[in-house]
From TrEMBL:
<keyword id="KW-0520">NAD</keyword>
<dbReference type="GO" id="GO:0051287">
    <property type="term" value="F:NAD binding"/>
</dbReference>
<dbReference type="InterPro" id="IPR028359">
    <property type="entry name" value="UDP_ManNAc/GlcNAc_DH"/>
</dbReference>
<dbReference type="Pfam" id="PF03720">
    <property type="entry name" value="UDPG_MGDP_dh_C"/>
</dbReference>
<comment type="similarity">
    <text>Belongs to the UDP-glucose/GDP-mannose dehydrogenase family.</text>
</comment>
<dbReference type="GO" id="GO:0016616">
    <property type="term" value="F:oxidoreductase activity, acting on the CH-OH group of donors, NAD or NADP as acceptor"/>
</dbReference>
<dbReference type="InterPro" id="IPR001732">
    <property type="entry name" value="UDP-Glc/GDP-Man_DH_N"/>
</dbReference>
<dbReference type="InterPro" id="IPR036291">
    <property type="entry name" value="NAD(P)-bd_dom_sf"/>
</dbReference>
<dbReference type="GO" id="GO:0016628">
    <property type="term" value="F:oxidoreductase activity, acting on the CH-CH group of donors, NAD or NADP as acceptor"/>
</dbReference>
<dbReference type="InterPro" id="IPR036220">
    <property type="entry name" value="UDP-Glc/GDP-Man_DH_C_sf"/>
</dbReference>
<dbReference type="Pfam" id="PF00984">
    <property type="entry name" value="UDPG_MGDP_dh"/>
</dbReference>
<feature type="domain" description="UDP-glucose/GDP-mannose dehydrogenase C-terminal">
    <location>
        <begin position="355"/>
        <end position="448"/>
    </location>
</feature>
<dbReference type="InterPro" id="IPR014026">
    <property type="entry name" value="UDP-Glc/GDP-Man_DH_dimer"/>
</dbReference>
<protein>
    <submittedName>
        <fullName>Nucleotide sugar dehydrogenase</fullName>
    </submittedName>
</protein>
<dbReference type="InterPro" id="IPR014027">
    <property type="entry name" value="UDP-Glc/GDP-Man_DH_C"/>
</dbReference>
<dbReference type="Pfam" id="PF03721">
    <property type="entry name" value="UDPG_MGDP_dh_N"/>
</dbReference>
<dbReference type="InterPro" id="IPR008927">
    <property type="entry name" value="6-PGluconate_DH-like_C_sf"/>
</dbReference>
Length: 455
């Protein structure tokens, strides 16, 4: 593994560990770009933010793909092109749906026709921060029910360590399959970064852990179709915990970044400047940028799978518990800062108006999953503040109490006491914000307004 850039803060001696990684090397066909052992037909279960790009990537390697989703409305959206994909992927999806290279269905009976099955269903957490595994359980039941000898089954949904064995091995063995001989089972967590063209799926390494060595190799040959770099670990549990560690680390980093931003404000310093300066050190520092909170499916949710599993075993991870508490509280810190600024500027005698810029959790995507904007808007309403939002990617949203809001199409023509910068999408005109005297920048990077105040 000489030359592979490990991302470790171990005093610049990452190369000493490179030989611990086991790389899978498949021979690729020059014409198709797929491994010579790649399956001719793949079924992808779950067509959301992970499953649909996975379908497109498989098809780009000239593999027949069947996408299966329990939601008929989701299938309608896919057929109409109302999907969250890069423009090139959207075009490929459209043409392949028309030609039949990709087909989408709710019929899980078609699973039996595939040589490989990839499970990509969501694994959220409930209101009490416990794993919501119903969709994953149903998917695994369907896959096991329609499995046939010779198939390779790969679970990619993030979950607790042991999920692959618990939800797939038992049902498959009950049907008489010997895993590792009749059928091959592995875990390989997705690593898709929605809306980020710099992190293409085919360029992002994947980790595969099979139930047996032959399971690992079979699964790696499938995953090698969607990425050029595959690494093998000793078991599904090692691969499952790898994914959790990735997102736990990110959660810790963001919690530290947010707290350090508070330190910088106390000392009248710019946290972005300080972070970038610290990042010039070539070893021992892996930083992150502060913001209004943490959104998306991964970081606000995935660590709870580990905490839940540890509690079930009578164990704890106190640092992680505190980190997740701080992440959960971050939107309320934003609300308090807004209230503080309104009071400082004499805007709390009447019902003030606050406009939130950008509601999605991430730049360039129309994704509201776990977006900090939702609890921020709710908190402002609870504080007696009139709220509105402007996001051309999110035409409407619903707050936790059921209140519906519609994106303001012409916010520059309205009067607002404070403008709160939450998410800044590329290609959108925000120059009008400079005309508002009170602007709170929760991204710490909206420096086109010289008089902005930082969170």
């Amino acid at each position: 593994m000489e030359g592979f850039p490990l991302s470790l803060a171990v005093n610049g001696r990452e190369h000493e560990f490179a030989d611990r990684l086991v790389s899978y090397s498949g021979v690729q066909d020059a014409a198709t770009g797929r491994p010579d052992t790649a399956p001719a037909a793949v079924a992808v279960v779950g067509l959301g933010y992970v499953g649909l790009p996975t379908v497109v990537e498989f098809r780009s390697k000239h593999i027949e793909v069947t996408g299966i989703d329990a939601s008929s409305s989701r299938l309608d959206a896919i057929l109409e092109g109302d999907v969250e994909l890069a423009e090139s992927d959207r075009a490929l999806l459209s043409s392949e749906l028309e030609s039949g290279g990709i087909r989408v269905t709710t019929d899980s009976a078609l699973l039996g026709a595939a040589e490989a099955v990839v499970i990509c269903v969501p694994t959220p957490v409930g209101a009490d921060d416990t794993p919501e595994l119903s969709a994953l359980r149903r998917a695994c039941v369907d896959v096991a029910e329609h499995a046939r000898a010779g198939q390779t089954v790969i679970l990619t949904s993030t979950s607790y360590a042991g999920t692959t064995r618990d939800l797939l091995l038992g049902p498959l063995r009950e049907r008489g399959f010997e895993v590792g001989r009749d059928i091959h089972v592995a875990f390989s967590a997705e690593r898709i970064d929605p809306g980020n063209p710099d992190h293409r799926q085919q360029d992002t390494p994947r980790v595969v852990g099979g139930v047996t060595e032959s399971c690992s190799k079979r699964a790696a040959s499938v995953i090698n179709c969607v990425t050029d770099s595959v690494f093998l670990v000793s078991s599904p549990e090692a691969a499952e915990l790898t994914k959790l560690y990735e997102n736990v680390f990110r959660a810790v980093t963001l919690a530290v970044a947010n707290e350090f931003a508070e330190v910088c404000r106390e000392l009248s310093l710019d946290p972005i400047e300080v972070t970038l300066a610290a990042g010039t050190k070539p070893y021992g520092f892996l930083g992150g940028f502060p913001g209004p909170g943490v959104g998306g499916h991964c970081i606000p949710c995935d660590p709870y799978y580990l905490l839940w599993q540890l509690r079930d075993r009578g164990s704890r991870a106190p640092l992680l518990e505190q980190v997740m508490h701080e992440i959960r509280q971050r939107p309320q810190q934003v609300v308090r800062r807004v209230d503080e600024l309104l009071r400082e500027h004499g805007q709390r005698s009447e019902r003030p108006g606050v406009l939130l810029i950008g509601a999605s959790y991430k730049v360039g995507v129309a994704d509201l999953r776990e977006s900090p904007a939702l609890p921020i808007l709710s908190g402002l309403v609870d504080a007696g503040i009139e709220v509105g939002y402007h996001d051309p990617l999110v035409p409407r949203l619903e707050l936790p109490d059921g209140t519906e809001l519609v994106s303001r199409q012409h916010p520059d023509e309205e009067k607002w006491d404070l403008v709160l910068i939450h998410t800044v999408h590329p290609g959108v005109d925000y120059d009008w914000v400079i005309d508002y005297p009170l602007v709170l920048d929760a991204t710490y990077r909206f420096d086109r307004v010289p008089h902005r105040l930082l969170l």
